[in-house]
Here is the input.
Amino acid sequence: MNILVSIKQVPDTKVIKVNPKTNTLDRSSAPAILNPYDAHAVQEAVRLKQKHGGKVIVLSMGPPQAANAIRKCVEIGADEGYLISDKKFAGADTLATSYALYKAIEKLEKEQGIDLVLCGKHAIDGDTGQVGPGIARRMGMPPLTNVINVESVDTDNKLIRVHRKIEEGHEVIESPLPCLLTVEKTINEVEYAPLPNMLRAARYEPYVWSVDDLEDVDIKQLGLKGSPTIVGTMWPPEKSSGAEMIEGSTDEQVSRLLEVMNDTQELLAVKGGDGA
Amino acid sequence: MSIEEYKDVWVFIEQREGEIFDVGLELLGAGRELADKLEVNLCGVLLGNNVKNSAEDLYAYGADIVYVIDDPVLENYRTETYMKAVGDLVRKYKPEIFIYGATSNGKDLASAVATEVMTGLTADTTMLDINLEKRLFEASRPAFGGNIMATILCKKHRPQMATVRPKVMKKPEADFSRTGKIIEEGLGLKEEDLQTKIIDIVKSAKKSVNLEESDIIVTAGKGIKDEKGMAMVKELADTLNADLGASRDVVEAGLIGHAHQVGQTGVTVTPKLYIVIGVSGAVQHTVGMQNSDVIIAINNDPEAAIFNVAHYGIVADAFEIVPKLTAELKKALDKEGVTTNG
Ligand SMILES: Cc1cc2nc3c(=O)[nH]c(=O)nc-3n(C[C@H](O)[C@H](O)[C@H](O)COP(=O)(O)OP(=O)(O)OC[C@H]3O[C@@H](n4cnc5c(N)ncnc54)[C@H](O)[C@@H]3O)c2cc1C
Ligand SMILES: Cc1cc2nc3c(=O)[nH]c(=O)nc-3n(C[C@H](O)[C@H](O)[C@H](O)COP(=O)(O)OP(=O)(O)OC[C@H]3O[C@@H](n4cnc5c(N)ncnc54)[C@H](O)[C@@H]3O)c2cc1C
Here is the structure.
C-alpha cells in the first residue's frame, strides 16, 4: 500500500511576531517547522506501512527551504520526498494550492500508484483546513476529514474504516480506497526518530519539481492568478483599548469590583435568588 | 460567468436527526444584516431526511426562502451526497454569498463545494460585512495562530463563500410572525451508487459541565498554584453561582477535568461575566473567551497579556484578594450561611 502524505512547512506561530508598522508577519522572527498536524499524518502513514507494506511518499509545495520539513518526515520514517517549487505557485490560495498538489499527486499516482492520501487537519499558519478536501475533490476521492483513528484497512477488498471527530462524539465511516484522510493530532503520538532515520534524514535530498515537470498543467489555475480569494487588509487582533485598571488597597479594589459587578446586578440577583 | 446573475445570501442549516444546530440560526441573524444591506433575499439551505417540517421554523430567524432537499440518503452527513446536493442548488439558483458554520461537517462541505464550483472560500471567519460601493463581501478571520486578523475578498468568482465560527454571531430573537416560502428540490442519488458508508455514530458521554451555556464563568489559571488555590476559586464561583473554567495548564496539572478548559483546544465561551484569575493570557486561551460581555482579570503581573483582552484589570495577589472578594460578595448577595453550608 503506497501512502502519500501532503506536508507543509510553516512558521512556528507560537513565537511569530507582527511588525507593528506594516501589520505584516515578521517571518524571520519565527523558525520554520513541519506543520505539527502533518507530523502526525506521516507517523500514521508509517504505522500503516509497517502493518500493510508499501511505502510512504511525502509531497510539499513551497520554497527550496521546505526541503527541511521533508527531511523531518524522513526522520519519522518517510521513504521518499518530493518538493514542488516554482515562482508560478506563489501567492496561491487554497483552491490554487490544491490544484498544484493534485497535479503532482496525479503524476506520482501514474508513476507508482497511490492507495491513500493523508493530510493534516489544518496548517497552523493559514489555518483554513481547506486544502485536504480540495485535493480529494480534484482526485475524485472521498475525503474523510478530522480522523482520530484508523480502525482497519482491508487491502484485499480495498476498504478503509476510520473514526471521524464530530461535534457530539465521533462517527465510524467506511470508504473504498483510494481515499483521502485529514488527521487530528490525537490520532497518534509522534515517536522519537530512531538513529538510522536521523542519519538518513540529515543527508536526504528530496526530488524537486518545477511547473514544467508536471503534466497538463493549466497555468491560469496556479498561484496568485488561479486564486479566487485575495488577502485584503491585515491588522493585529483587537487589543481592546486595554483594561480599566482598578487600583488602590485590596479593600478599595474589592469595593470597586463589587460596583462593576453591580452592573450585572440583574444577573447576580436572579442567580442569587435561585440559591437562597 | 457573469457575476451579476448571482443574487441572494444563503446560509447552510446544519442539523442532526432533525435538530437544527444553533450555528445555523446565528448565521441567519448575521446573514439577515448582509441581505438587508444588499437588498436581496436571505435563504436557508436545509438538507436531510424528514427535515421538511423544520423548514418553516427558519422564517422566524430571518429566512425569506428555504431550499429543502429531503431524502433518506441525506440522513447523515456525507461529503459526497451533501456536496452534490449543494453544488446542484448553487448552479441552479446562483447565490451571491453563501455562509456555513465552521463545524467539522460545515468546513468539510464548504471546502468540497468551493472546489466543485471553483470559487473562493474564507475559513473560520469572525466578522462579516459588505462593501456596498464595490458590492463585495468582506469576510475577516484570525490567522497565524490568532496573531493577525485578515480581511479576505473574492472579487471575480461567485458565490463568495465563508465558514463562520460557532458562537461568534448572536442568535436572533425568533419572530414567529415572519413568513417565507419553501423551494423543494430532488437529490438524484441512490444509496447503491455511493462510495462511503456510515457504520455508526458514537456520541461521547454528556459533559459534566457545558460552559458554552454559562452566564458567569470564573476561570482559574496556573497562578492559583494547587488544590488550595483551586478551592479558593471554587468558593468564589459557588458564591456567584458561576461555572468553573480553567486554562490548559490547570487541566494538565490534574486540578480539574478537560470539560472545563477554555481556549483553542477547549471550549469557546461567551458568558455575560468572565472572571479570570492567574491566567497569563496566551492567545490559545484568549481566542476562547475574548467575546465575553464583561471580562475581569486578576493577576499579580502588571504586564500580563490577559489585561489586553480584559475590560477591568486588577494587579493583585489572588490569594489575598479572592477570599476578600468572596466574603464581600456573600454579604452583598445576602447569601451568608447558604453556600458555606454547601
Ligand atoms: C492571513 C492569511 C489568510 C488566508 N486566508 C485564506 C482563506 O480564508 N481562504 C483561502 O482559500 N486561502 C487563504 N489563505 C491562503 C492559504 O493560507 C494558502 O493557500 C496556503 O497555501 C494553504 O492553506 P492553509 O495554510 O490554510 O492549509 P490547510 O488547508 O490548513 O492545510 C491542511 C493540510 O493540507 C496540506 N497542505 C497545505 N498546504 C500545503 C502545501 N503547501 N504543500 C503540501 N501540503 C499542504 C497539509 O497536509 C496540511 O496539513 C490565507 C493566507 C493568509 C496569509
Ligand atoms: C496548540 C496549543 C493549544 C493550546 N490550547 C489551549 C487552550 O485551549 N486553553 C488554554 O488555556 N491554553 C492552551 N494552550 C496553552 C497556552 O499557550 C498557555 O500555555 C496556557 O494558557 C497558560 O496557562 P496559564 O495562563 O494558566 O499559566 P501561565 O502562563 O503559567 O500563567 C500563570 C499566570 O498567573 C499569574 N500569577 C502567578 N501567581 C499569581 C498570584 N499569586 N496571584 C495572581 N496571579 C498570579 C502569573 O503572573 C501568570 O500570568 C495551548 C497551547 C498550544 C501550543
